[in-house]
Give the backbone structure.
Amino acid sequence: MKIGIDCMHCMIKRQVENLEKYTEEENKAEYFKKVLKIISEAEEYATAPVITAEINRLHQEYFKTTYSFDKLKEMYNKLLLEKETELYEKIKASNDNILEAIKYARVGNYIDFGAMGTIDNDKLENLLCNADRELIDKVEYKDFRKDLSTAKELVYLTDNCGEIVLDKLLIRAIKEVYEELNITVIVRGKPILNDATIEDAKLIHLEELVPVIGNGTDVPGTYLEGIDDEARNKINNADLIISKGQGNFETLNGCGLNIYYIFLCKCDWFVRRFGLEKFKGVFLNEKHLVEYIG
C-alpha cells in the first residue's frame, strides 16, 4: 500500500515529537532534512513500514541510539498477561471460542505506539470490556472456518507487544479445535517500535504453545522482499495466514496469498478506506480487498 498524505504527516509528526529530547539544534535540523528527503524520494509504491525502518536506521546513525520501547513493551506484556486467564475464561464461556478469541485479538491491536503515539489505558480497558459485543462479518468468518478445516499449515503474523498475549489466546482456541493443524508464529526479526520479537514471545510463553520464528528484519510489517528465507518460505507454503495489524496489512495487501487481516482502524486512511469508525475492527480476506481498495 503506497503512502498518502496522511501517512507522510504521521511520520513527520512522530519525528518532531521524538526530537524534543535532543538539544543539538544543528544536528537535529540536518537529521530532519534527511528524514524529509527519505519520505519525499520514496518509490511510488513504498509502504509506510519500510520507510519507517529506514528513518529509524538514520536516527541511530545520527544520535547513536535507537528509539527504545523496552519499558513500554514489558509493561503491556505484563498487563495483558495479568488478564490472560480471565479473558480466556470469557472466551471458553462463549458459544464459539474461535469467534470470541478473534474479537479479543482484534481489539488488542490498539496497543500500537507507532500509529497512536500514546496509549490511553482507559480506552484499552474499555475495548477489552466490550470486545464480545463487536461484530465479525458472518460470510468472512464462515470462509475462515472452512479454510481452517482444510488447512495443514497456518502462519500467524503478529504485530505489537501486549497484543501478542491476545494472539496467544486465539492460537490456543484454534489449536483446541484443529489439533492436527501446524501453526507457526512469525514475529519481527529485530526491535522496532513496540512490535513483538522473539524475546517478547518467550516472555509470554508463546513458544511453549507453538513454534515462533523471527522474520529477520526491522521493518514494522511483513515486507516479503526483505524478510529472510525461512520466514518467506513459511509464508509462501502456508495454506492459511492470519495477519495482525496495520503494518502487516500495508506491506502485504495485494500479494494474493490466502491471508485474513485482523486489525483496528486507527488511522484516518483506514477509517476512510474501510468506511468504519475509528477503533472499529476489520476481519477481511485478501481476496475481498478489491471491494475496498481496488
The two ends are 11 Å apart (CA to CA).
